[in-house]
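Hey, I'm writing a tutorial for new members on how sequence and structure tokens pair up, and I'd like a real worked example in the thread rather than a made-up one. If someone can provide the structure for the chain below, I'll link this post from the tutorial.
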Amino acid sequence: MYAELLRTAHAYEAGTGAVLESAGFLLEDLFNELEGLPPRHSGSERSDFRRAISSAAEPQPVAAAARQVELEGPSRVAAAARAVQAAAGQLAATLNGIEDGFEDPGACVRPSTPTDRPREHFEALKSAISTFADIARKHLNHR
């Protein structure tokens, strides 16, 4: 199950990493609209960005694999798996919040939201994956 969590986490990392730039573009356009400025991207471009983000921001496979690792333990490995799951969930919430902001501007994101927030959460995911891999490796090597 450790390998399955790493596989799903890396796939999620790759998918979300591919849409970070689009998320930044959407945030900029959303903030422009909230301030009464014209967006930089056309409606069709924004629709494409939103579709890509919506499709990439699905952390359920990561969550399912993390739950399996929690069952197997030990507690240190389980805690690292929970951290991966939490980071994936936070990144999904951030990306979906941007996408949802176009449905209800101002409800999900605020102009004070840093435009680099998606990248910060992406980096937190990468760090959690790396930490999990290290802890799992140490556990497996000491059996």
